[in-house]
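Review form for a predicted model. The reviewer records the input and the model, then writes brief findings.
Reviewer: anonymous (R2)
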Amino acid sequence: MRDRHLQSSTSYGTTSVGRLDARWPEVIDELLKPGDAGPKAAYVALVALLATETDSMFRPVRGNYTKRLGWLRERLQADRDLILGMTIHQAKGREWDAVGLALQSTHVTRLAGGLSVSEAVDRALYVACTRARFRTFALRAEA
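Model under review:
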């Protein structure tokens, strides 16, 4: 039963999240290796790590997986402050001190007219607008 890993004990390190968290740096070390070998090695390490917690089968290394890991490596190696970017669905249930929203003109119109709980688009927009603890910034995605 998969939930056996999620049954909590009093120690963080004995939960599946704690065990994965403890070994995550190994995956990052592989990712940061130079050249094309880094993302491929990171994918293999990630699959091996996840296999310790699940019976699920993972696909062999594929170009689209390593391409995304390559993008992650570029972000990790950047010499600038990074801005976390995610979709509304990925952000659901999380919050940050400040959030910037890339709003399209249709979003602005819906916000100005008031949101409706019966409209899925409005509910998603509400989720996006309520992820900030202190400040929400509206960024125009289109001119």
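Findings: The radius of gyration is 20 Å.
Further findings: Residues 2-77 form one domain.
Recommendation: see findings above.
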